[in-house]
Design a protein that fits this description.
It holds the Pfam family LIAS_N. The chain has 318 residues and is an alpha/beta fold. The protein contains twelve helices and eight strands. It has an eight-stranded mixed β-sheet with strand order 1-2-3-4-5-6-7-8, sandwiched between helices.
Length: 318
């Protein structure tokens, strides 16, 4: 047996000893076509030329063909190696590389070349860095503003666990949307997100609103990991208590046999019922479909988010 036969053992060394979980066949409502468009290839070539990482590729996002056809890519900064080993994530884990000092400017250049009206920037976890990568996020936001002043910026950050002052540094750079995903119900954290703490993530989201009440906040979860409907409702309540504006809900898809197994495929009708439940709990927006991901249709959703806030303010004033 060679490494080439099992590349996930290199990519996810912490999972190498785990038994395989067979990957289930996806239902018809969740299958997507392989990317083949010219625009997809152009976007990929631009990322290669600027030596940039995207979560679209690293996390094996099922929407990459659709998004890259429209030249919508989610940039992944702070390198391509994560210091955590979450059971759901396909991003490589291990000892990270040193930060690339040119990465913020390269992201700004790519945003300008792609003529993006809205951009999403995420990252790996960098527990090895004193600030968790907060200043690198801030530099990237400033670089995008300099290269493409009209582009609205959405960030999807790590939890900055035990990184005092990190969230303040990022909020001060004034992204338009601050996103941090809870990922799943708290009961499942020990097996699905073992390096994280549910209430640490909630506190981060609440802190963003304390620092800047006008900043949009966003969070998301995956379903199909074994959570109950009651647990999803409780996560919604917790997010609303933190004054989170926008929630995303999507189907968990197992990347490799070494990752957590899919408990079940949630039907489109159940996703619609979650959207209805979330709107009833007071979110400005809820995106809930099998293929929903944090940055899926993010630009169009941001426009809707602003409109929803304006309607809410108008109703309150009236």
């Amino acid at each position: 047996m060679t490494v080439a036969d099992h590349p996930e053992k290199l990519r996810h060394p912490e999972k190498a000893h785990k038994p395989d979980n067979p990957i289930q066949r996806k239902p018809g409502w969740i299958r997507v076509k392989a990317p083949t468009s010219q625009e997809y290839n152009e976007t990929r070539n631009l990322m290669r030329g600027l030596k940039l990482n995207t979560v679209c590729e690293e996390a094996a996002c099922p929407n990459i063909g659709e998004c890259w056809k429209h030249k919508h890519a989610t940039f992944m900064i702070l390198g391509s190696v994560c210091t955590r080993g979450c059971a759901f994530c396909n991003v490589g884990t291990g000892r990270p590389d040193q930060l690339d000092p040119h990465e913020p400017d390269n992201v700004g250049e790519a945003v300008a070349q792609l003529k993006l009206s809205h951009v999403v920037v995420t990252s790996v976890d960098r527990d090895d860095l004193e600030d968790g990568g907060a200043e690198h996020f801030a530099r990237t936001i400033r670089a995008i503003r300099a290269a493409s002043p009209d582009t609205t910026i959405e960030i999807l950050t790590p939890d900055f666990q035990k990184k005092k002052g990190a969230v303040e540094v990022v909020v001060e750079a004034k992204p338009d949307v601050f996103n941090h995903n809870l990922e799943t119900a708290p009961r499942l954290y020990p097996t699905i997100r073992p390096g994280a703490r549910y209430f640490t993530s909630l506190q981060l989201l609440a802190r963003v609103k304390e620092l800047d009440p006008s900043m949009f906040t966003k969070s998301g979860i995956m379903v199909g990991l074994g959570e109950t409907r009651e647990e999803v409702g409780q996560v919604m309540d917790d997010l609303r208590a933190a004054d989170v504006d926008f929630m995303t809900i999507g189907q968990y898809l197992q990347p490799t046999p070494k990752h957590a197994a899919v408990d079940r495929f949630v039907t489109p009708e159940e996703f619609q019922s979650y959207a209805t439940l979330g709107r009833g709990k007071g979110f400005l927006m809820v995106a809930s479909t099998p293929l929903t991901r944090s940055s899926y249709h993010a630009g169009a959703d941001f426009a809707k988010l602003r409109e929803a806030r304006l309607r809410k303010l108008a109703a309150t004033a009236g």
